[in-house]
Amino acid sequence: MIPFGDQLRCFVAAALSAAGIKRHFARGFVMRSGFQFAIASLVLSVVTLSGACSPRLSEPVTVEELEIVSEDVADVSPQLQELRKRRVEELAEACTILQRQYESGVIPLEQLLSARAQLAEAEVEAAETPQARVAVLEKLLALSKEHVQVVQGRVDSGNTSTVDLLLAKAALTSIEIKLLQAKEELESP
After folding, report:
1. What is the Cα–Cα distance from 167 to 161, expressed in whole angstroms?
2. CB within 8 Å of 133: residues ≥ 6 apart
3. How close are the terminal C-alpha atoms of the chain, in Å?
């Protein structure tokens, strides 16, 4: 099974690919036209509106949401729980700063999306209960559905291949599987 963090990194890479942003080894990510910039901005909006990080448009899963205490996590040390929460707080603060830098044109979109992927991965890892995991995965599911719609539009307009759409749908299915597993864990006594 592919680790969730790797799935999320693939999802971000697919989003950049859907925007027509090509990876050049020596130069990083390059946008070749205004249209590609518009698509990349749309992808960023989808990420932001899904609650992955932005402090202005929507809120990420808060530390308080992750603090739901359950008897199921009694075996996890308080020190480990605290470190996970601290990692989420640090990444959320980094995302806030990177958002401002991106809006000012200081950093590329790829750097912001990478930080948001790390934040989402940390939120899933820090989720102490099935309820918290479900909340995080539902936000990721909404993001993935929006991504599939963006890629479908690009396929319909002839700007990308069906392979990109299949990869986006596979990422969506992976998140649906994780969400279903988390919900089943929530329902089991």
Report:
1. 10
2. 124, 127, 182, 185
3. 25
Sequence-distant (≥ 6) Cβ neighbours of residue 109 within 8 angstroms? 16, 21, 29, 40, 43, 44, 102
What share of residues in the chain are helix, strand, coil (percent, to 5)?
70, 5, 25
pLDDT of residue 80: 93
Is the full-model pTM beyond 0.85?
no
Tell me the pLDDT tens digit for each residue of 84-96: 999 999 999 999 9
- C-beta neighbour count of 80 within 10 angstroms: 11
Is residue 111 within 8 Å of 98, Cβ to Cβ? Answer: yes
